Amino acid sequence: MDAVDGNAIGGLLHEVFGSEMTTTVGVCGACGTARQVGELAVYARAPGTVVRCPSCDNVLMVFVKIHDRTCVDLMGLAALG
Amino acid sequence: MAGTALRGRLTWQAAKVLAVSAETATVRTVTLDVPDWPGHQAGQHVDIRLTDEDGYVAERSYSIASAPGEPVALTVERLDDGEVSPYLTDELRAGDELELRGPIGGYFVWEPEDGGPLLLLAGGSGIVPLRSILRHRERTGSTVPVRLLYSSRTLDDVIYRGELDNPAAGVEIFHTLTRHQPPGWPGYARRVDATLLAEVAWPAGLMPLAYVCGPTSFVEAVSQTLVQSGYPPQRVKTERFGGTGGT
């Protein structure tokens, strides 16, 4: 499946974090690569949205919408912001 | 509830369709009246939400085709297996309402003070946000030099053809048609590769700023080639549409 960029989930991220996030820097917890969220690899057709490190493929963030709630997992990130 | 959008928060609101115009056989530009639109930057997008009679909701992102200061316009390509685009291209009429939130995104945007020279690379409907950048450049009187390389399947698939045939001063436009070319076609006739980019792209020494938008495979191939030819990765901004269509 083709990845899109973090740009594509700018709306979802704004909803979750309450502000524009695509220029915020995320640091991969596995390889330490620091990229703007807009540059991260996003797989949006899984059951939920999976955000991966474009360098090492580590899963950085997972968002799953259940009814009106969005469950957020940021375990793969060393830092965000 | 309509009309209660809070500043700083991204809320769904109703937009009214002002006009729908055909760009190609499968592409339409939808011009919208969005009450309380806070304004957008060239390169940003909006989310569109459709809800069917059973309550099933489908959301998609669409790049804004118009320049800041112009009414919000979205250019949408019909995907045959799409949940949202066939409705937007085939069913939507002036006067209809559409649920929208935005503007969204700060990464794939250009302002005149970001400078250039600009290298814009579009595959298929990836031209849409780049067209917003071109119009913004022209409307602000920017003189930043621009080269646009636009890859389409056939001449009939070229979006904004009339507009691109009459570029503003300082804008050079190159087309490549990957599937079929009319007799006597003066442009390129193959997929964008390193040789083609070497002919068209600004030399890396000029510190150009590149925006690459299109299907994922197009964006990956083009952005990697640019970086290999010496463009710093942070000067190559990408927006992947996913899928394979359009180039």
Question: What labels would you give this structure?
Answer:
heterodimer; A: mainly beta; 5-stranded antiparallel β-sheet; B: 247 residues; alpha/beta; Elongation Factor Tu (Ef-tu), domain 3; 2 domains; 5 helices; 11 strands; 30% strand; globular; disordered N terminus
Provide structural commentary:
The complex is a heterodimer of chains A (81) and B (247). Chain A has 81 residues and is mainly beta. Chain A contains one helix and eight strands; from the N terminus they run βαβββββββ. Chain A has a five-stranded antiparallel beta sheet, with no helix packed on it. A three-stranded antiparallel beta sheet of chain A has the order 3-2-8, with no helix packed on it. Chain A is globular, with a radius of gyration of 11 Å. The termini of chain A are far apart. Chain B has 247 residues and is of the alpha/beta class. Chain B is 18% helix and 30% strand. Chain B contains five helices and eleven strands. Chain B has helices at 85-91, 127-139, 161-165, 194-200, 216-228; strands spanning 13-22, 27-33, 45-51, 57-63, 73-77, 97-104, 118-123, 146-152, 171-177, 209-214, 236-240. In chain B, the strands form two sheets. Chain B has a six-stranded antiparallel beta sheet with strand order 4-3-6-1-2-5. The A-B interface holds A 2-8, 10-11, 14-15, 18-20, 22-23, 36-39, 44 and B 8-10, 45-47, 59, 61, 101-102, 104-108, 215-217, 237-244.
Structural class of chain A: mainly beta
Given as residue ranges, the uncertain stretches of chain B (5+ residues, pLDDT < 50) are: 1-6
Order of helices and strands of chain B: EEEEEHEEHEHEHEHE
The largest pleated sheet of chain A is described as:
5 strands, antiparallel
Count of helical stretches of chain A: 1
Continuous helix count of chain B: 5
Average per-residue pLDDT of chain A, rounded, comes to 92
Morphology call of chain A = globular
Strand order of the largest sheet of chain A: 1-4-5-6-7
Helix content, binned percent of chain A = under 10%
- Whole-number tally of structural domains of chain B: 2
The top-level CATH class of the largest domain in chain B is Alpha Beta
Q: Strand fraction band of chain B?
A: 25-35%
List the chains of the largest interface with their residue counts.
Answer: A-B, 21 and 26 residues
Give the N-terminus to C-terminus distance of chain A in angstroms: 28 Å
Q: Cα distance, first to last residue of chain B?
A: 40 Å
CATH architecture of the largest domain in chain B: 3-Layer(aba) Sandwich
The helix content of chain B, as a percent range, equals 10-25%
Write down how many β-strands of chain A occur, each being a DSSP E stretch of 2 or more residues. Answer: 8
Q: How confident is the prediction overall: mean pLDDT of chain B? A: 93
